Backbone:
């Protein structure tokens, strides 16, 4: 697969020297698998083996795991010590131009320096480069952060966790190629749509009509890119 590497603007806040960052597909850099698995396990638990298994399924056909890296030493390839953060992108059922953003995390030692914003902005650039025009996500407690990045409340969506040979051929074709303006919706059932509060109902980034399986509020958000 052709290497797709995005170079980001330098991070200046709280850093004595501007840094060059890049966003790379994890499946093109297997040397970063262990470090990403540790990063995810530190944040959300689960065994290292389970994390590695999920990360190893990253591909250009989605889901795609992306790693945010600091520039390595001159003439050196990316290395685990360069890892800043991680994000995973999956296709959205019934929305050929949409992607679902999940597993967004920045290394704990690097938080508070603007890397989270850099990670999300780089993810938007990557999605646009692949031909997508809308990002979806859900969160329990980071809705204010995403609102500052331009995300707005939305209805729940259903993600396609991976592309299986058992899926209908038409659905596989629809999900395996970048969308086009005339692309038809894939033959995958859309998620049940829960109604959003009517305009003027007072919904705020602190309130949500949706609950997860534990009964906790969950915020569904989207952004047109």
Residues:
């Amino acid at each position: 697969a052709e290497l797709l590497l995005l170079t980001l603007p330098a991070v200046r806040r709280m850093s004595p020297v501007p840094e060059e960052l890049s966003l790379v597909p994890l499946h093109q850099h297997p040397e970063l698998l262990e470090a990403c698995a540790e990063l995810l396990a530190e944040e959300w638990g689960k065994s290292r083996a389970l994390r590695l298994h999920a990360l190893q399924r990253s591909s250009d056909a989605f889901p795609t795991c992306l790693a945010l890296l600091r520039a390595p030493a001159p003439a050196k390839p990316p290395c685990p010590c360069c890892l800043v953060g991680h994000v995973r992108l999956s296709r959205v059922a019934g929305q050929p131009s949409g992607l679902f953003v999940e597993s967004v995390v920045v290394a704990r030692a690097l938080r508070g320096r603007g890397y989270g914003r850099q990670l999300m902005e780089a993810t938007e650039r990557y999605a646009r480069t692949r031909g997508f025009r809308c990002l979806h996500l859900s969160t329990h407690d980071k809705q204010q952060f995403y609102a500052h990045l331009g995300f707005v409340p939305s209805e729940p969506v259903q993600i396609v966790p991976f592309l299986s040979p058992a899926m209908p051929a038409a659905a596989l074709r629809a999900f395996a190629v970048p969308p086009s303006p005339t692309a038809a919706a894939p033959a995958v059932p859309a998620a049940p749509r829960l109604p959003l509060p009517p305009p003027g109902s007072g919904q705020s980034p602190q309130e949500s009509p949706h609950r997860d399986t534990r009964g906790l509020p969950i915020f569904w958000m989207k952004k047109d890119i």
Summary: Residues 11-17, 172-203 have pLDDT under 50 and may be disordered.
